[in-house]
Specification:
By secondary structure, the chain is mostly helical. It is 68% helix and 0% strand. It is built from ten helices and no strands.
Length: 221
């Protein structure tokens, strides 16, 4: 057990909470992409069975394993065909933002439940797993919200920028996208992450988490 724990980003005690939270976070994230794309007229994801809350349709084995080991990862990308959109720029931005936004909503719901239970005075009577599960659910979804908004391919933040810029700049970005993806992988899997990706994540997670915590603390107490 000790050897296994060395390879994990999380303690073994919280691993069940992480796995359940991952199933929720990744599934809702990818479903949101697929659902919004479908609502804007693109049936591609729906035709591939991605407009569903079945986790099997969305989980990526490597991305899921990586988040257990390194603390961040990804699910299976949702296929999107922009040519089906009447307004490709607006629809593209909303489809890309839908995934991270869904993680923020889950985190907010976690805070509402957590502070709501405390305000109701039922905290001591709750099953032992409720508070640690809510903590993991909130932290993991805040992480995914911040992580996916980093403007590097293949993340949602990059897709949002692609749809905001001019058509000429978008074409140039697409031309060099493969190199951006390579840079992204290098930044994740090498010690460079401690000087690039991790500081961004730490700052963003701290800001979002503290802001939500302070807001709901004031709201409930």
């Amino acid at each position: 057990m000790d050897q296994l724990e060395r390879f994990l980003h999380y303690d073994l005690e919280e691993l069940p909470y992480v796995i359940v939270s991952l199933l929720i976070a990744f599934t809702v994230h990818e479903f949101s992409h697929a659902y919004v794309a479908y609502k804007f007229g693109d049936p591609t994801a729906k035709n591939e069975g991605r407009v569903t809350l079945n986790p099997v349709s969305h989980l990526d084995p490597i991305g899921t394993l990586l988040i257990l080991i390194a603390g961040f990862g990804w699910a299976r990308p949702v296929p999107v065909n922009r040519f089906h959109f009447k307004n490709p720029k607006l629809a593209g931005v909303l489809v890309s933002f839908a995934g991270p936004f869904s993680n923020l909503i889950i985190a907010i719901l976690g805070f509402v439940i957590f502070y709501g239970l405390l305000a109701a005075g039922v905290g001591p009577d709750l099953p032992f797993f409720v508070q640690p599960f809510l903590n993991v659910l909130i932290n993991l979804n805040v992480l995914l919200f911040v992580f996916n908004l980093i403007p590097l391919p293949p993340l949602d933040g990059y897709r949002i920028i692609q749809d905001i810029v001019s058509a000429d700049l978008r074409a140039k970005m697409t031309q060099y996208e493969q190199y951006g993806s390579l840079i992204f992988l290098i930044l994740i899997i090498t010690p460079l992450s401690y000087y690039t990706i991790r500081p961004i994540l730490d700052t963003g997670i701290r800001f979002v988490g503290d802001t939500l915590s302070q807001f709901f603390s004031l709201l409930f107490f």
